[in-house]
C-alpha cells in the first residue's frame, strides 16, 4: 500500500492516517490511459481520460504547500 511507503493516497480512509483535509468522497486515483484487447474481437483498444478538475486543483494545492 502507498501509505506503507509514506505516500498515502488522498481520500484513502482505510490505510491513510491523515484526516480527510480535502473533503473528497473518493480516493484520488486516476488512470490517464488504459489499454486492453477486446475479449471478442481481439482488437487492441486504448482509452484515454484527462485528469478530473478536482484532482488538478488538489495537486496544485499540494505543490504550493511543498515549495
Task: Tell me about this structure.
With 67 residues, the chain is α+β, with helices and mostly antiparallel strands. It has a domain of 33 residues. Helix content is 19%, strand content 15%. It is built from 1 helix and 2 strands; from the N terminus they run ββα. A two-stranded antiparallel sheet has the order 1-2. The model has no long low-confidence stretch (mean pLDDT 86).
Main attributes of the structure:
alpha+beta; 1 helix; two-stranded antiparallel sheet; 67 residues; 2 strands; single chain; elongated
Number of strands: 2
Q: What share of the residues lie within helices?
A: 10-25%
Kindly report how far apart the N and C termini lie: 26 Å
Query: Whole-number average pLDDT?
Result: 86
- Find the structural class using helix and strand composition: alpha+beta
The protein's oligomeric status is: single chain
The number of distinct helices, counting runs of at least 4 residues, comes to 1
SSE pattern: EEH
**Low-confidence parts:** none
Q: Judging from the principal axes of the Cα atoms, what is the shape? A: elongated
